[in-house]
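Reviewers of the previous submission asked for a worked example of the structure-prediction workflow described in the proposal, so we include one complete record here. The input consisted solely of the amino acid sequence. No template or homolog information was supplied to the procedure at any stage.
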Amino acid sequence: AVAAILTDERDPSLLFIHRVAHDRDPWSGHLAFPGGRIEELDASPRRAAERETREEIGLDLSDGRVLGQLDEITGSTILLCVACYVYLVGRLPDLDLNEEVADAFTVSLSGLADRDRWVEAEFEIKGVRRSYPAIDLGLDGKPLLWGLTYRFVTQILEHAGLGGGSRE
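From that input alone, the workflow returned the following structure tokens.
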């Protein structure tokens, strides 16, 4: 379960994390939303997303405004199903990143919707190279946004009336 966190502004921004590179992590070095596995003590997938967000970036969403849940996405190369809950927050506080997160930053929805930034790129998964749709955020040191997070972003853009519509 993951949390897509939008700022409450005229041109809302979406919060991303840049995951730390780690040999045993299939999403090592990728851009993502805060989140992770549902644990036995989590009352629901939404509570798991909130717990993981607190653990990864120090942001408490328990009293946040939940806008809703996006369509769940099943991984195409790793067997898992991910639930994404969308939250609206005012100004983001200073974040306290844990050892899993290299950086946290926001990108405006209008920037994400800019079709000039949408690309096709090759990624290697389990030794196989394949072309996937992605978004070039145009930020130094940041990889392309692709995979599950890209697929959730296209849903958010669609709900916001900014086009979305994955190229997959």
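The radius of gyration is 15 Å. We consider this example representative of the routine output the project will generate in years two and three.
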